[in-house]
Amino acid sequence: MTAVTSGRPRTFDETVVLDRALEVFWRDGYAAASLQTLLEHMGISRQSLYNTFGDKRRLFLAALDRYIDKRADEMLAVLEAPGASFPALVAFFRALGERSGPKSCMVGKSCMELGIDDPEIAARIHRFFERTVEAFCNALGNAAAKGEIAPSADTAAMARFLTATLHGLGMLARGGAPPEQLSEVVEIALSALRPVQR
Fold it and tell me: pTM of the entire structure?
């Protein structure tokens, strides 16, 4: 796309600069991400930002949408797969527990920082949480159907519990919890699924 910088046309990839803005907001949060830091990291001028995205708030909303559409696809794909079941749940959480210093979820950070007073942000947060719950429901439902967990399990309630655990792990990691402590949380969460003993 073409933007104007000091009266001269400049061409840049909107997706690339939006991903750079996402990196800043994900790292710093909304309030702490200064406009100057954003511009420098994005590699565009102030006028190009205004022409393309509007103001800082509209840029943040676009970055949050980008995060949900891209990062959630990557994170939840293993749980949303048609055949995902108990092994997918185990692999998903153990991978989280074994990481050294994983980033906290941008949606969770936004929820903590901005709350739900802004309806546009609240709608995005709700959409992400609902998608996460549905992904867990898919894997749990398959696990129950295959006899991997008790068929009487309340999969919807368990999916909400696992969603809360997922975002809690992100907060713990952000606060500096070592991998062994994250692994302990993961193992307790997995034990709550009450796998069927064979």
Answer: 0.79
